[in-house]
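Lecture 7, part B: from sequences to assemblies.

Below are the input chains for today's worked example.
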Amino acid sequence: MFSFVRRRMYTSALPLIIVLLGVFLLARLTGDPTNLYLPESATAEQRADFAAKNGFDQPLLTQLGDYFKGVLHLDFGTSLRTGESASEMALRAFPATLQLAFTTMLLAIVLAVIIGCWAAYRPNSLADRFSSLLSMTAASIPDFWFAITGVWLFAVLLGWLPTSGVDSGLSWILPIATLMIRPLGVLTQVVRGAMVSALSAPYVRLARSKGAGDLRVVTHHALRNAAAPALTVAGDLAVGLVNGAVVVEAIFGWPGIGKLMIDAILQRDFAVLQAAVLLTAVSIFALNILIDACYALLDARVREPARV
Amino acid sequence: MSTQLDLVPVKPTTAIVGEPETRKRSKWFRLLVNDRVAAAAAVVLGLVFLTGIVGPMLVGNLATHIDLDNSNQAPFTLAHGWANILGTDPLGRSMLARLIVACRTTLSVAVPAVVISAVVGSAIGMWAGYYRGWRETIAMRVADVIMSFPSLLLAVVVLYVFSPSAANIVLVLAITRIPVYLRTARAESAELQSRLFVDAARTFGASAQAIIWRHVAPVVLPTLLTVATLDFCYVMLAESSLSFLGIGIQPPDVSWGLMVSQGRTYLHTAWWLSFFPGLAIVITTVSATILAAWARIATDPGQRWRLTVPQKRLSRFTKTTKALS
Amino acid sequence: MRRQAVAVALAAVTVVASGCTVANSRHGGYDLNTLRIVLPEEPPTLEPCESSLTSTGVVVRSNITEPLIERDPASGELQPLLSTGWRQTSPTEWTFDIRKGVTFSNGAPFTATDAAFSIDRAVNSDLNCNVDGYVFGDEKLKLNAVNDTTLTVATETPDPILPLRISFVEIVPRTTSTTAKVREPIGTGPYVVDDWEYGQKLRLARNATYWGKQPAFARAEYQWRSEGSVRAAMITNDETDIATGLGPEDGAGNLGVAFPNNETTALRITCTQAPLNDIRVRQAINYTVNRTGIVKALFRGMGEPAAQLIPDGVVGHNPDLALWPHDPDKAKQLVAEAKAAGVPVDTQIRLIGRTAQFPKITETMEVIQSELAEIGLNAKIEMMDTAGQLQYQLRPFPDNAGPFVALIMHGNQAGDAAFSVDQYMRTDGAQNGCGTPAFDQNIDAAGQLIGQQRQDAYAKLFAAEPTEVAQFAYIAHMNGVLGKSPRVDYRPNSATGDEMRLSQMTFASTNREA
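Predicted structure of the full complex, as structure tokens:
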């Protein structure tokens, strides 16, 4: 298992470099930040000055070289907007998003497994159809609409929850609910579908004839086989969370890295953007390695290439 | 002692199912009709596509005619004309007409994006899973690279460097979704390599392309179809999130996502502005998902038996012998 | 079995570890002595020389730091603040008397040297301060602290409104860095920076050594939410006392106070390319834009149709100027005339706007585009983010931009037409799209005058612009909406958007200070 993980880590190094390179180029393609950071009537000299101070007048290759040199020293430059170190800003914002994403995914997986198994247990019954309809609808709701309606309904109208911010435990509820509805809906359907196939397979009959109880059949036998497709989907959803909690962070004022990235894009703050993207890229690679490891754990056939 | 588990239908060991096969065409039709919910979903989806294709021609300029005196009229009343049955937007344009025109834009963004990413992603995935080795590693790392790019950054860049247009949005959404198909196809394809029928085909000297096309693809197809329709869902929602950030479909073009996004500032005073396009999105994606679930069963020869009789009679396939005590 | 147990244990540990606290969070109920404010965005910095940037100035100006002179937004008059009096001692020199007995919040005494240092730092240094460009343009000032209580400021050319410009410079101690901008400044104002949790909250506390009257609230707490409806919800939910930048339909209800916010929206036409280089086409655009309709239907009556770039209360505003009449037929006729004269009126015109610049901007753009289409002009809407749109608002414009019209929103914070006219109407102004040398001469002449002559000269310029240049199709003088909790007493004025003075906020008369 560890050799598998080690191997994956080595092969992830090159893609990481490509990601860094890619975001460096793409960020600079978005345009010139000068107008945002200089006074309106800046003269041509002042613009040239600004460019020189930030290295924008150098040829692209030189800028790239400086950038990579800085990365090796873990120095990502300073933010054009605030003057702070870019890596500090990214590292400060990241844990908040991580907590949000982790809790959301955990809740979504647990709930999806419970509901999916329960629905597969009695397929085509009223309960099953109802939960299917509900999960499909949940996977189809625009997240920002859900968030704003939630704020209006639960905070303003009913007064049960705070509107936004990170002040109390209650303020977790709306952001997590918003972030969770789509993963929950999608995962429930996947788990249900996979479980229905698994429960109708011959080995279930065999287990039953050996005297296994319902719970053991569902969890120990069927779930393990249904876990594989569910895991792939869960992994993709998790990646999407880490990358795209932007909407939730923007609406609820959650101080996370999604909002930092979108602000950096809009402000053409290249240093912060690069630092933030690197941080999320590393965590996504780590997550993928984790998922592949789980996958290999579950299905031994995938671990080694087929020997013909 | 028999429990709930015994009531789960299992495949019959003898062929006692349905009527004898007639023509090939009606086989699929029969499979669809036997699942009433899926049939209803198919009808709804058909209506949506029909609206997208034909609707804008019928609606004419009702969707673009600005009438500031009629702004934000409430729905469900005929007081302002039948065209405004679903209310009007802040510029006095008919909601119904805008929904119909937006249908076409939304579908013309979502469908091509899904098709492109599905075809490209699964082709590469199956190829990588077949060969394993370095090809697989490269393909998976490419998928990793694409997945760690914030889809928003890619969207902003594409829409600023080139001009913001539906085609570019399709391109961006397609590229960011390729990894999903790639990973799924690869996983299933890799798992199949150890199966007997693939081994047999290789022994007979079938080329890689033939094996992938004839043996791997049909097995992988059901999962991919499910993923594709769920992805259709995601693409429609991603398009609305892009509009929320201001970089989606640009006015005066209109899409459901843009309508939901523009209506969000009016939640208190004109709820219908966000509600109806949101409802349209939900109805379309739920129908597509139901149809996908049906297609997954129908295209899988191992599961098809479930659809050979009407759903109500599925209980015929549960265990009926006495339990051993 | 063992594997399962390990997995469960691992999951439990991570949940507990992460669930204990939200990273970067604190609890609290709320303290009655804290004034809670929610802004649309976090100030990027509190550097005083950037305080002409709205997101910085709204927190810093007259709260943490103070200028020598302050402009009263209602009357337009200059009031003494850190300077007790000023006079023009020669055409190119002004003398300011400095207030005695003032200390900075770090204990250092405030003298004319600090004043000279601050102005020099803002205007003459290499820091590229926003105040420099916005207020002073290319001017270089010569400063001299004659003694502790007297400061002279010399300009290269006579500048009758120098005190007004000086009112934009916030005073900082002479020990402040001249090579780097300062994120959390020291000043003489009624509040000091207590704690800034970057990304989350900014807390101010009363300055114990403040020279003036202590403000009513002992502490102030700023937060930020980008969605207007969330800010409004915070007001109705009593999670905040003041919410800025609300739209009319965000849901603040009767807790929302509408006020003229000093901003004017207009279409700025660049006339370097056909068909916009023909004055008939530009005048046709003016005839077809339905200002009254837009204000009534889109802005819900909150705003006033505009006939010039500055609202009432700014020196140079022409009170007699009538609205351009709404006459689509006349517009069509003008376009036809231009077409007959060979102007290619079908060329696509780019209609450029900034996303979310003001509530309903998208709808406004759509109305304008359809009105232009009605008279035979081919306009295409392009909404861009701030950085993108600024490329078309500020010179130098991109090459190959084609004929374009930019929707701009101009706020004249200074209270004198010179700031608007120099930026927008002089042919070398940073935001100018169209001008003539003759008009430039009149602008220069007006800038030299003072008093009633100045007022009349600028008023004449605004009256003549539509026929001589026609660079603008004005839309409206805008209103802002401020959400205000019933426990706070505050009347917003035209300066509130740029400079929100916390000392003007008091407890509502039914509450008693706890």
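Note for the exam: Residues 16-28 of chain C have pLDDT under 50 and may be disordered. Keep this in mind when comparing with the next example.
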